[in-house]
């Protein structure tokens, strides 16, 4: 069975051009290298944004430095709101450079500081490495807030796919640590449940045909978790309580493998009295934003920027 006929016609050409790939451990370095060579940075200068690459301290002295890309508007106010961004890639692929154009656009459009984290990837670095790197970035944003020129009461977090899942994990971890507040979380089809796509949880057959399949999801989770027993905060859907988390904006795609786990998470947040907005984009699948000119992609970008603006209380 194919769900191709259910796709928005405007995103089909981008999906047709998307290469097939193997997640075999020997193939991962090749995919990462090829992706890095294909990625081109956007023109930050043309958008009035300063992009800086920084190495920040790891969570503990024993952990390595964490590379981040920091974006700030040239005419930034003295105390900006800020957004900690975590890239996608199934916890095994990706880099901050892959989200460069979007982060430049957000920094310019909203007048905020953005810190995009180059967290360690599995399987070389299974849990808790990525979460520790993300929390190190949140720590740095708070402790260096004066130098960065950011308002620590207005720091949002978010990401796409695995980045969205990692942001959900970070929200849980930060809540439990009770050290550094987060005011908002933006989760774009977040990867939050290791059970999705296994034999006991195959899910709706209309989902998961394109880009991120059941097989890839199970491999990604196995690499990420390693020998660790699946549990929160690394697997957000396994959290026993979602109370006390920051308000959330969750978007997902109608044909995405993660659709139902995302909807369920939004429902659980609502039941835990967490203000939550949920959007399901019809006719879309995982990675539909690869079609930048599609109306649904433009709608997503507008919705995302609007949610971030509201979450950071910009213009109020």
Care to describe what's here?
This protein is an alpha/beta fold. Helices cover 33% and strands 18% of the residues. The chain contains 9 helices and 8 strands. The chain has helices at 12-17, 28-38, 100-110, 129-143, 145-148, 162-177, 214-225, 259-271, 295-311, and strands spanning 49-56, 66-73, 80-86, 113-117, 150-160, 184-188, 248-253, 276-281. Strands 1-2-4-3-5-6-7-8 form an 8-stranded mixed sheet, with helices on both faces. Strand 7 (248-253), helix 8 (259-271) and strand 8 (276-281) form a beta-alpha-beta unit. The protein is globular and about 55 Å long. It starts with 11 loop residues before the first helix and ends in a 5-residue tail after the last helix. The model has no long low-confidence stretch (mean pLDDT 97).
List the helices and strands and how they pair.
Elements: H1 12-17, H2 28-38, E1 49-56, E2 66-73, E3 80-86, H3 100-110, E4 113-117, H4 129-143, H5 145-148, E5 150-160, H6 162-177, E6 184-188, H7 214-225, E7 248-253, H8 259-271, E8 276-281, H9 295-311
Parallel strand pairs: 3-4, 3-5, 5-6, 6-7, 7-8
Antiparallel strand pairs: 1-2, 2-4
Helix pairs in contact: 4-6
Give me some keywords for this one:
single chain, 316 residues, alpha/beta, eight-stranded mixed β-sheet, 33% helix, 18% strand
């Amino acid at each position: 069975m194919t769900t191709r006929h259910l796709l928005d016609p405007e995103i089909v050409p981008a999906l047709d051009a998307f290469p097939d790939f193997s997640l075999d451990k020997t193939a991962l370095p090749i995919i990462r290298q090829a992706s890095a060579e294909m990625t081109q940075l956007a023109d930050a200068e043309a958008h009035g944004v300063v992009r800086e690459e920084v190495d920040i301290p790891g969570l503990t002295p024993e952990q390595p430095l964490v590379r981040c890309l920091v974006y700030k508007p040239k005419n930034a106010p003295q105390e900006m709101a800020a957004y900690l961004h975590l890239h996608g890639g199934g916890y095994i692929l990706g880099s901050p450079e892959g989200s460069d154009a979007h982060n430049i656009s957000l920094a310019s459009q909203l007048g905020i500081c953005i810190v995009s984290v180059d967290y360690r990837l599995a399987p070389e670095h299974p849990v808790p490495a990525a979460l520790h790197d993300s929390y190190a970035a949140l720590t740095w944003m708070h402790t260096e807030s004066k130098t960065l020129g950011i308002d620590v009461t207005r720091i949002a977090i978010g990401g796409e796919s695995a980045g969205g899942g990692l942001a959900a994990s970070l929200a849980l971890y930060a809540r439990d640590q009770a050290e550094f507040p987060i005011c908002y979380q933006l989760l774009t089809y977040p990867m939050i449940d290791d059970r999705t796509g296994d034999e006991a949880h195959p899910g709706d057959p209309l989902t998961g045909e394109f880009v991120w399949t059941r097989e890839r999801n199970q491999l990604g989770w196995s690499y990420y978790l390693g020998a660790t027993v699946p549990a929160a905060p690394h697997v957000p859907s396994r959290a026993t309580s979602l109370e006390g988390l920051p308000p959330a904006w969750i978007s997902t795609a109608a044909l995405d493998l993660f659709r139902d786990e995302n909807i369920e998470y939004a429902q659980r947040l609502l039941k835990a009295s967490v203000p939550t907005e949920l959007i399901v984009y019809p006719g879309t699948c995982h990675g539909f934003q690869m079609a930048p000119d599609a109306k649904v992609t433009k709608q997503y970008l507008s919705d995302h920027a609007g949610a971030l603006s509201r979450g950071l209380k910009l213009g109020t």
